[in-house]
Design goal:
264 residues, alpha/beta, UDP-N-acetylmuramoyl-L-alanine:D-glutamate ligase, 9-stranded mixed beta sheet, 8 helices, 22% strand, globular, binds pyridoxal-5'-phosphate, Hydroxymethylpyrimidine/phosphomethylpyrimidine kinase, EC 2.7.1.49, hydroxymethylpyrimidine kinase activity, transferase, phosphomethylpyrimidine kinase activity
Length: 264
């Protein structure tokens, strides 16, 4: 039985407030009925009001965590989240090349909704050249897609162009998250698949400030579904539905930008 349990891995930063990062990842994987291990690459001090501070893990600790997980568990899919800085991105890339962890979802976390930078500016280039070519799916929001492509995204056509540019950088499948910014009254994301097919996934707009950890939750749900053997298209559609449900029926935690309802 134990060996048949579907196992996933999140490679990301923690959130002391419990709403985002590794905490959101594990809650999501649990709700999607897969087991999740975690390689913690950074620790943040934060709550729903914002990020007070963070510290990246030394390379040796990152290496040891990967080794411990890989020696014992059978990881079927993995994701990356907050990667902090150049040495951390480089350490993660080195380990991703060393171990077979299945399809990789890269959530290119850069700036928290509260404004805190979770990836140093110089590390964006390292992510582009070293991490993106390893990604099965990349899930940028609009600001992240703009940083990675160098273009301004103001329309649905721009989102399509950005997705193509990102695929040209070596990513197999791209999900550009438009959120509420481009399409009136709904949240629209554009998907460009490896085979060239593309489609939009949409959900109704929900007026709430309880959206902390949305990106982590979406990318974790996608990872969980890939681990179960779902196609990229199905994993993305399930992920979008799951995130919409966690936003629609919020919970009351903290005084600021609250976390999602993973029981929804
Ligand atoms: N903290 C960590 C560790 C994260 O990984 C993320 C998002 O990926 C955030 C904070 C930001 O969460 P949000 O922008 O949804 O508030």
């Amino acid at each position: 039985m134990v060996n048949g349990t579907v196992q996933t891995l999140t490679i990301a930063g923690t959130d002391s407030g419990g709403g985002a990062g590794v905490m959101a990842d594990i809650k999501t994987m649990q709700e999607r009925h897969v087991f999740s291990a975690a390689v913690v690459v950074a620790v943040t001090a934060q709550n729903t009001l914002g990020v007070a501070d963070f510290m990246a893990m030394p390379k040796k600790m990152i290496d040891e965590q990967f080794k411990s997980v890989a020696e014992d568990l059978k990881i079927r899919a993995a994701k990356t989240g907050m990667l902090a800085d150049v040495p951390t991105v480089e350490a993660v890339v080195e380990n991703l090349k060393k171990y077979d962890l299945g399809p990789l979802t890269v959530d290119p976390v850069m700036i928290a909704k509260g404004g805190a930078r979770l990836l140093s500016e110089d590390a964006i280039q390292t992510v582009k050249t070293e991490l993106l070519p390893l990604a099965t799916i990349l899930t940028p929001n609009l600001p992240e897609a703009e940083e990675l492509t160098g273009m301004q995204i103001k329309s649905e056509d721009d989102m399509k162009t950005a997705a193509q540019k990102l695929q040209d950088m070596g990513v197999k499948n791209v999900l550009v998250k438009g959120g509420h910014n481009i399409s009136e009254g709904k949240s629209s994301d554009f998907v460009l698949l490896e085979d060239g097919n593309s489609f939009w996934v949409t959900s109704p707009r929900v007026d709430t400030n309880r959206t902390h950890g949305t990106g982590d939750t979406l990318s974790s749900c996608i990872t969980a579904e890939l681990a179960k053997g779902k196609s990229v298209e199905d994993a993305i559609r399930i992920g979008k539905r799951y995130v919409s449900a966690t936003i629609a029926d919020g919970i009351q935690v903290g005084h600021g930008h609250g976390p999602l309802n993973h029981w929804a």
